[in-house]
Design goal:
31% helix, alpha/beta, Peroxisomal Thiolase, Chain A, domain 1, 2 domains, 13-stranded mixed beta sheet, two-stranded parallel sheet, 339 residues
């Protein structure tokens, strides 16, 4: 059922399994115990940072299959993306899987886009199982978008720290025979619009992304004739401290107080003061690893029954800022419930 920008699925895709991979810094943070795979070696045994990111995706993919007791031949499509040029981490990481591949880019919101497209395939009957997958790595992102680590530049407190992590979600047709356990579903999705508030500071992506998150959440409420009271929690991707505060202020202007029902993956994944993470976490792996490492497990344990997951992305490129452009942003919303 389509309602303007929101689609409510008639055949709700089930989240069959999920897996998370995290680097050393992330494993030492508040969510460390929730990740499936962690490593003290941020190269993950590879020769370079880019290979490390591909290895994280392979590990997440294989772990999700292992938890579902399935093989790669049981997956109809992979929908995956990352921050690197030409989706290098995903293309190289998934090359040996021999599964039909769709590469997607939504910056830090990529896991949302992958979940949306994967859900379309399952709900429409075009696939029985789809793997939605993404990753990011602190060192690859710094090299691609900012400065090589050897440069040793200082970052302002408004900057976020790119998460070294990966998350994989295996979507499938609802299994009515598995009635003896709690199961996660994708109820519906709201596809975001590109939103540009004129921010041109690459070290303050939270400010660029907050208006996109506000717009998508508000459109979801309007499309579904609902409000904050219809969700146990609204979880944004990686607004960090500054972006979260901006989001609160934008909703207060609408006479809506989301403070008590909102958390942000970028705020949760690090102990911001103890770990020197500046404004919090960001990157494709931030929302993905937090979703697959923490959020899903909390839902299955009964903490939340219905959430609105809203990963956000700053759609800048390595060229756009040098040409003096502002930072357009996007946010997608995924309604997830457990029964």
């Amino acid at each position: 059922m389509k309602r303007k920008n929101t689609i409510i699925f008639e055949n709700r895709p089930e989240i069959i399994s999920f897996a998370s991979v995290a680097g050393k810094k992330e494993s030492e943070g508040p969510l460390g115990k929730f990740f499936d795979i962690t490593s003290d070696d941020d190269t993950f045994g590879g020769k370079c940072w880019e290979e490390a990111e591909s290895r994280m995706q392979m590990a997440a993919f294989n772990k999700a299959l292992e938890k579902a007791k399935l093989k790669k031949e049981d997956v109809d499509y992979i929908v995956a993306g990352d921050l690197l040029g030409q989706l290098m981490a995903s293309s190289f990481g998934m090359a040996d899987m021999n599964v039909p591949f769709l590469g997607v880019y939504g910056a830090c919101s990529t896991i949302g886009e992958a979940l949306i497209l994967g859900s379309f395939l399952v709900d429409g009957g075009y696939a029985d199982r789809v793997m939605a997958l993404t990753s990011s790595h602190f060192a690859t992102a710094e090299k691609e978008f900012r400065f090589p680590l050897a440069y040793g530049n200082q970052r302002p407190l408004s900057a976020t720290t790119t998460v070294t992590g990966s998350g994989a979600v295996l979507l499938g047709a609802c299994n009515t025979e598995a009635a003896d356990k709690r199961r996660l579903y994708v109820e519906g999705v709201t596809v975001g619009r590109i939103t540009d508030f004129g921010i041109n500071d690459a070290n303050n992506m939270g400010a660029a992304m907050a208006p996109a998150a506000f717009r998508t959440i508000k459109e979801n409420f309007e499309d579904c004739y609902s409000g904050i009271e219809d969700f146990d929690c609204i979880i944004t991707g990686d607004l960090g401290n500054i972006g979260s505060e901006i989001l609160y202020d934008m909703f207060i202007n609408e006479d809506i107080d989301i403070d008590g029902k909102h958390i942000d993956c970028g705020r949760e994944i690090y102990d911001i003061k103890r770990q020197d993470a500046h404004s919090g976490g960001s990157g494709c792996g931030c929302a993905a690893s937090t979703l697959c490492g923490y959020i899903f497990k909390q839902m299955l344990c009964g903490q939340w029954s219905r959430i609105l997951f809203v990963p956000t992305g700053a759609l800048m490129s390595t060229v756009s800022l040098h040409e003096g452009n502002t930072i357009p942003a996007i946010a997608h919303a995924v309604i997830i419930s457990v029964e």
